Structure formats: structure tokens, C-alpha cells
TrEMBL record:
EC identifiers of the protein: 2.7.8.6
Protein name: Undecaprenyl-phosphate galactosephosphotransferase
Organism: Winogradskyella psychrotolerans RS-3
Family, per entry: Belongs to the bacterial sugar transferase family.
InterPro entries: Bact_transf (IPR003362)
Molecular function GO terms recorded: undecaprenyl-phosphate galactose phosphotransferase activity
Spans traversing the lipid bilayer: 12-38
Leading EC class: transferase
């Protein structure tokens, strides 16, 4: 089980990596935001409330990928533009989350931050998932990297997500927290 000391070391590592990488990535991030602004015909960054550590809500930041003003809910984004699809497939739309890591809302590795109605409704020992900050990547994220395509194949994507994918993600994320190690985080970052 992850300890308070491990959580502190995890935080120091997160900040160190972001501080080192941000000077190299700020130019590409600004360029992608400008491209997304032109493509979507509105500001190229959007924010949305997500469930974070201990169930507290925070604002997540992403590069906009939908041209119709919708929010990127992560499911069946048929309204994404060509540029938006590229950003989503390459995960470049998630680069602004480095800011979320820097300010302490997120970690580089952990369970993905959910919309309300999922992680905030966990009960019993499943709530262990909320002990860690949500991550840009994590074991469930890597397993379901093609989640949108998987959902498109389902007759009832919402039901499939809630009864199959979400249940599996909780199991994966519980195992991550219960068996946490710094080495595991490094492996997950390198697999991204």
C-alpha cells in the first residue's frame, strides 16, 4: 500500500520532471493551442471539472479537439476535427495537464481523473483509488488506450463503459495503489 513517504517522493519526482520538461515543451504547447484555436474557431484550451485525490474536484486542462464547442468527454468523439483526432490519437491534447501536475492537482502516473459520477461514487475498499492523485498516464490508461474505438463497437457504449470498462479500471487502479513502487511509475511512464 502506498505510504505518505512514497506520496511525498512521488510529488517531488513529478515536480522535478515537469520543471525540467516544461521549458522544452512550452513552445510546442503554445503552437498546438494556436492550431486548435484556429481549427475549433474558439479558444484552443478548455477546462472541465474532474474528480481528484480524496474525491475533491479540480479543473483539468486539455487542448480542444472538438470543433462544435462540446467538451472532450473521452467517448465517441465523432465531432472531432481532423486536427482534433490527431491530437487525441497522439495524446498531445493532454500536454496542458503538465500544469495540473505542477500545481499539485495531478501526478504523472495514477488513475485517470474521472468525471463526476464515477470515482466520487466509489465505496468500501474501492475508495483506495482516491488516495493518490490522478495521473496523466497509468496502468488502466495504458490498457484502455484504444477505449474510444472499443466503445464505438458496442451497441450501448454507456452501459458497456459503466459495467465492463469502469469495473476493470477500478480493479487495475486498486492494484496500482496497493502495489505501488517508484519503479512501477518509471515503467508506466516509459510505456506511454
Amino acid at each position: 500500500m502506498i505510504t505518505q513517504t512514497q506520496l511525498k517522493i512521488k510529488r517531488i519526482f513529478d515536480v522535478s520532471v515537469v520543471v525540467l520538461c516544461l521549458p522544452l515543451l512550452i513552445g510546442p504547447i503554445v503552437l498546438l493551442v494556436l492550431i486548435a484555436t484556429i481549427d475549433a474557431k474558439q479558444w484552443g484550451v478548455y477546462s472541465q471539472h474532474r474528480v481528484g485525490q480524496y474525491g475533491k474536484l479540480f479543473k483539468i486542462y486539455k487542448i480542444r479537439t472538438l470543433a462544435d464547442g462540446s467538451h472532450n468527454l473521452g467517448h465517441l468523439d465523432d465531432s472531432a476535427s481532423l486536427v482534433g483526432r490527431f491530437l487525441r490519437q497522439t495524446k498531445l491534447n493532454e500536454l496542458p495537464q503538465l500544469y495540473n501536475v505542477l500545481i499539485g492537482d495531478m501526478s504523472l502516473v495514477g488513475p485517470r481523473p474521472d468525471l463526476q459520477g464515477f470515482a466520487d461514487e466509489l465505496t468500501g475498499d474501492d475508495r483506495i483509488v482516491l488516495k493518490v492523485k490522478p495521473g496523466i498516464t497509468g496502468p488502466a490508461t495504458l490498457k484502455y488506450r484504444d477505449e474510444e474505438q472499443l466503445l464505438k463497437l458496442q451497441k450501448d457504449p454507456e452501459h458497456y463503459n459503466r459495467t465492463i470498462i469502469w469495473v476493470d479500471k477500478v480493479k487495475i487502479n486498486k492494484k496500482y495503489v496497493q502495489n505501488y513502487s517508484f519503479y512501477l511509475d518509471l515503467r508506466l511512464i516509459l510505456n506511454k
